[in-house]
Design goal:
about 400 residues, alpha+beta, five-stranded mixed beta sheet, three-stranded antiparallel beta sheet, 16 helices, Cyt_P450_sf, Cytochrome P450
Length: about 400
């Protein structure tokens, strides 16, 4: 389908879409695996909504992540110079740069290394729950009071970010996430990106003078070895770890608690059999995928993909949230079942860009949800489900607020 006039227009950014996404995705899957859509700035794109084709796209080497290979792209023309030092990371690179960048940090995110953080994560969860349990009125906003601070504390500890600076990352990461596939919003974040760059510059200088046992010191040491890490790559890597290291886990915890509250029989089962937390987290990742849409890919050369004519420079998007609800792969995909096993979801992607932080996100989700259910009996939503405040982000599936009583 190459006729520009026939492009499907879907407002993926609207609150209405977020609230009704599963019905919209199901209708798209019924019509086909791949659709031609129009982006908000009028660029056509391919949208992949079925599981098998999504897996194929995520592992297709001819779909590239580095937009700078395509100099005619609107996203490059509109990107302010303040963003330049933050776009040279693993999610925007292809081999061999991607391989080199990933190798720099992957040792810190192996399952063995992450398991060593268990005690610290449990301690953080208990401290946050102490504050929530002691709050007047037996009410809380679980995004503000729990789902956000837990992962930001963990990734800040790993990076070596001072405690007093953690909350600022929420504003910075929200600003960047809000620009995903929305070039018209770049202007609004100029000053925040400049503040972020200045902050990181000061932090890097301090760590150069006084290196510690943290990831930033490790990256600076790698930078000094020669051409392994450029200045832009250094900024971009830390930027990516801060955002990817907490933003998706905020959504995992918030979405998970919401799914359990919406399915009280599943929450009761998990309370009775807490050992099911492992499969419960996998089902949360499938049912309410924290990353709903893949980051951008561009066609590197003309080729036919699943019968569709992909042309050089075409934008390709994978609807991960839709693929994880594909009835061709999952039985009763709209049923939330914490005993579902096996559960081959693609919430963390596939192929060389498979999420480096998956072991950390899983562990944080398992601990956070287990401890919450243990500490807060009679947990219930404190708002009408029809007015759930989903974030209007193209990329993410997450709540702005999650008010509860207990």
């Amino acid at each position: 389908m190459s006729d520009h006039a026939s492009l499907l227009t879907v407002d993926f950014f609207s609150p209405e879409f977020k609230s009704n996404a599963w019905k919209a995705y199901r209708e798209l899957r019924e019509r086909g695996a791949i659709h031609r859509i129009r982006m908000p700035w009028d660029e056509p794109a391919w949208l992949i909504v079925r599981y098998d084709e999504a897996q194929a796209a995520l592992t297709e080497k001819r779909l590239l992540k580095n937009v700078e290979r395509f100099q005619d792209k609107e996203i490059l023309r509109r990107r302010p110079k303040e963003m330049e030092v933050f776009v040279h990371h693993m999610l925007t690179s292809d081999p061999p740069d991607h391989t080199r960048l990933r190798n720099l940090v992957q040792q810190a995110f192996t399952p063995r290394m992450i398991e060593q953080l268990r005690e610290r994560i449990e301690e953080i969860a208990e401290d946050l729950l102490d504050k929530i349990a002691g709050a007047p009125g037996r009410e809380a906003d679980l995004i503000r009071d729990y789902a956000f601070p837990l992962p930001i504390i963990v990734i800040s500890d790993m990076l070596g970010v001072p405690r007093e600076d953690r909350d600022r990352f929420r504003e910075w990461s929200n600003a960047v996430i809000s620009t995903i596939n929305r070039p018209e919003r770049f202007e609004a974040i100029r000053s925040r990106m400049k503040d972020f760059q200045d902050y990181l510059g000061r932090l890097f200088e301090e760590r150069r003078r006084n290196p510690r046992e943290d990831l930033i010191s490790g990256l600076l040491a790698a930078e000094e070895q020669g051409d392994r890490l450029s200045e832009k790559e250094l900024y971009s890597m830390v930027f990516l770890l801060i955002i990817a290291g907490h933003e998706t886990t905020v959504n995992l915890i918030g979405n998970g608690v919401l799914a359990l509250l919406q399915h009280p029989e599943q929450m009761a089962l998990l309370r009775r059999e807490p050992q099911r937390i492992t499969t419960a987290v996998e089902e949360i990742l499938r049912y309410y995928s924290p990353v709903e849409m893949s980051t951008n890919r561009w066609v590197g050369e003309d080729f036919s993909f699943e019968g569709h004519p992909f042309r050089h420079g075409d934008l390709v998007l994978v609807a991960i949230g839709s693929a994880n609800r594909d009835e061709r792969r999952f039985s009763d995909p709209d049923v939330f079942d914490i005993t579902r096993d096996p559960n081959p979801h693609i919430a963390f992607g596939k192929g060389i860009h498979y999420c480096l932080g998956a072991p950390l996100a899983r562990l944080e989700g398992q601990i956070a949800i287990s401890r919450l259910l243990d500490r807060l009996p009679d947990l219930r939503l404190d708002l009408d489900e029809s007015s759930l405040p989903w974030r209007e982000d193209f990329l993410m599936r997450g709540l702005l607020r999650l008010p509860v009583r207990f």
